[in-house]
Design goal:
The chain is an alpha+beta fold. It has 2 domains: about 30 residues; about 110 residues, Rieske [2Fe-2S] iron-sulphur domain (Rieske Iron-sulfur Protein), CATH 2.102.10.10. Helices cover about 15% and strands about 30% of the residues. The strands form 3 sheets. Strands 3-5-6-7-12-13-4 form a 7-stranded mixed β-sheet, with no helix packed on it. It has a 4-stranded antiparallel β-sheet with strand order 8-9-10-11, with no helix packed on it. A two-stranded antiparallel ribbon has the order 1-2. The N and C termini lie far apart (about 65 Å). The relative contact order is 0.15. About 5% of the residues have low confidence.
């Protein structure tokens, strides 16, 4: 018999196992946070990300996956060691699989193509770099991503 810490009496074995299973999965959810895609508004062919609302974009090495309204493929926003922003398509140029950003590179899980954090091919089978999008950081601290040029 296990006694509840909240004073609610006994905790049955099944309830105890459920609580343990829930606690054991918490680290998995933290690991999945990097794969979450944040929907963002698209206005006149551009996305505006105020750094005040996206503080992770102020950190060197940061990665953010966004999905502009009306788009089907996420974009990956990367911050380099100098604080500059690079935005690339998450669509592998080999066969169109969705790539994933890792700490120092971008990897396609389907066939192993590997890109640097600027989207350039490090290892094939991909032959072309990931599509890059023009960006601008305004004086007001807004990262503007131009989807149409």
């Amino acid at each position: 018999m296990i006694v509840r810490s909240d004073g609610g009496g006994e905790l049955r074995r099944r309830e105890f196992l459920g609580v343990c299973a829930s606690l054991a999965t918490l680290p998995l959810f933290a690991a999945c946070a990097s794969v979450l895609v944040r929907p963002v508004p698209l206005t006149n062919g551009r996305v505006e990300l105020p750094l005040a609302q996206y503080p992770e974009l102020r950190e060197a090495g940061a990665t953010l996956k966004i999905l502009p309204d009306g788009e089907t493929q996420p974009l990956i926003v990367l911050v380099d060691a100098d604080g500059r922003h690079t935005v690339v398509s998450s669509e592998c140029t080999h066969r169109g699989c969705t790539v994933e950003a890792q700490s120092d590179r971008i990897v396609c899980p389907c066939h192993g193509s590997t890109y640097d954090r600027r989207g350039e091919v490090l290892r094939g089978p991909a032959q072309r770099a990931l599509r890059r999008y023009q960006t601008q950081l305004t004086g007001e601290g807004v990262l503007v991503i131009y989807l149409s040029t």
